[in-house]
Every structure is written in structure tokens, then in C-alpha cells.
Specification:
mainly alpha; Rossmann fold; Tyrosyl-Transfer RNA Synthetase; three-stranded parallel sheet; 13 helices; 54% helix; binds adenosine-5'-triphosphate; binds L-tryptophanamide; Trp-tRNA-ligase_bac-type; ligase; Rossmann-like_a/b/a_fold; protein biosynthesis; nucleotide-binding
Amino acid sequence: MARVFSGIQPTGEVHLGNLLGAIRNWIVDQHEADSVYCVVDLHAITQQQDPAELRNSTLRLTQMLMAIGLDPDVCTLFVQSHVHEHTGLSWLLECTTSFGELRRMTQFKDKSDKTDFVSAGLFTYPSLMAADILLYDTNRVPVGDDQRQHLELTRDVAVRFNARYGNTFVVPEAAIPRAGARVMDLQTPTNKMSKSSLSPQGTINLLDDLKSVEKKIMRAMTDTDGDVRYDVASKPGVSNLLSILGACTDRTPEDAAEGYAQYGALKKDTAAAVVETLRPIQARFAELSNDPGETARLLAIGATKAREVAGPVLARAREHMGFLTS
Ligand code: ATP
Ligand code: LTN
């Protein structure tokens, strides 16, 4: 059975881009593959975090993933820092990744431009991400389009390690959806919708009040030519709405454009589709967030399951690299 692995950072609120670009596909994959999903708290500290907030976000994000539909009885759901093999392998991979490769990462350039204190961890972030993936003999990694470059680097590092030290890692493939792979900010549709966006009007968080979700979509930036068609380069706002509508109704953005003669109707239908997607998630989240003890119990089981796979893979990598067994 194929192994699927993916991760999400416990920073800020989960937004529509995270849902349509990544998490939605995790829900499907858990029934079709041996799926492992990780709340990557070690990645979250590459930028300064408040300790109480990190604790709270880690718990809330886990509850949100379960509210969306991840079932800890079906998949493996755990917190990265609970499984020490991640930091153990990360160092071996930092020493198999070149400075030049890390310097070319566009996420590093974007994030380091926006902060005064650029940690060494922000720079080596992709090596930790490669460790996350390679520790589970992963075949497929479902992520949004923004992670494509990190996935390419992971593949290069796996191939290099295998060539230097003998066959050790499975070389993974990225799985990026057709619709929803890059959900853009509703007000600045040339930027991706992001947890760190400065415009609350441009971002739809999954726990936003449903009335305000509708308003944000009705006020989304479009253009003046009035034609409803999917054309990302010249019509970024309209294309973003089509991509969202398509993802919420299981169609391609091109198919979602059929039959619309004006923006008002498109916005109305997109708003309705998003509201109907969010309503059940919000209801389940309200139930799950009442029982943090149960969430912690499920995470402990998830960490034990994850270690059973990660432990032998790290031991294999250490042995191939020439470390004495202890
Ligand atoms: P930040 O804004 O802090 O970079 P983020 O919103 O990108 O965070 P992550 O935890 O880094 O969130 O990403 C979780 C998953 O969501 C990843 O697979 C990522 O590719 C996907 N994702 C994030 N933003 C979008 C987006 N706007 N459209 C589609 N997928 C997205
Ligand atoms: N870098 C990713 C989060 C992430 C991840 C992973 C995704 C960390 N480790 C492993 C897939 C597989 C991000 O910023 N979205």
C-alpha cells in the first residue's frame, strides 16, 4: 500500500487555502493509502512563537484537522516534536543539503524579507521538512503548489543520500491538486492566501463567522472587463473565484466557469459553496474543542504509531552513514 505523508504548521488560523490546497485531499487519501499527517510544531518555531500560543495552536490545529475529517483510527495523526527521530534525521540531511540549494528556496526569501530576526532554523527549514517525509518511506506528499520547490529539494537530497551511502530512502512524489492548489488573497489576488497575510478581508479562516465569509467573497477584487473565464495571468481575481468554486464543487476551474455571464452570480454561488463547505466543519470543531484531554490522548497514540515507522528508518540512515551503533 502506498504511503502518504504531509504536514501543517500550528501558526495562525487554518484558512481556505490550507483546506482546498492540502487538507481536503488528506481526508480522501486516508482511506486509500497508509497515511501519516503531522502537526509540524518544530517548523513553527523557525519564526518566533509565544509559548502559550504555540501550545494552544498545536491543540486547536489537531482538533481542526479532525473536524475537517481526519480520523485518528484510520490515519496516523501526531505532533512532530513528540517523535525525536525528526530532529535526529534532520541533522544528517542538513549535512547532505548544500548552502546553495537552501539559498535558492523562495519561501526562505519571502519569509526572511518580512522579519528582522532571521533564524538559522528558517534557513535549514527544508532539511527538517525532508526528514519529515523521508522518515516514513513516503511515496506521495499532498501539498499546495507553494511547496513544490521544497518537494523537489527533498527528492534531490534523497537521491544524493542514496548515491553516497547506498539505497536508504524512498524518493517521494509531490501530489498537487488541479483546483485549489493555489488559493489567492481575495483582495490582492496576485498573492497567495496566507496565515501571515496583512489583510483580514483577503483571507477566509475556517472559523470565520459565515456571514462575514459571504461578505468577503461578495467584495472580492475582480476586474472591469466583465467576462467570466479562467485566465490566471490576465484575470487573477475571477480565476481565483473559479478555482475556489471548482474545488468546493469537485470541478475544474474551467468547468466551473460554464454558464456565468456576470461576476455577481459567480460570487453568489462561490460564497454559497464555501459556506456549505465550512458549516459542518465549524459544528464538529465546536464539539471537539470541548475535550482537550481526548485530543491529547489521541496524539499520544499517533506518536507511538509514527515512531514504529520512523525509528527503523532513522537507524537505517545512521548505519549507512557510518555511525557506530550504541
Ligand atoms: P504561512 O502563511 O505561514 O506560510 P501557510 O498558510 O502557507 O502558512 P502551512 O502550514 O505552511 O500554511 O501549509 C499547510 C498546507 O497548506 C501546505 O500543503 C500548503 O501548500 C497549503 N497551502 C498554504 N497556503 C495555500 C494557498 N493559499 N493555496 C493552496 N494551498 C495552500
Ligand atoms: N513546509 C510545509 C509544512 C511541512 C510539510 C512537511 C508539508 C513541514 N513538513 C512535510 C509536507 C510534508 C509548509 O510550509 N506548508
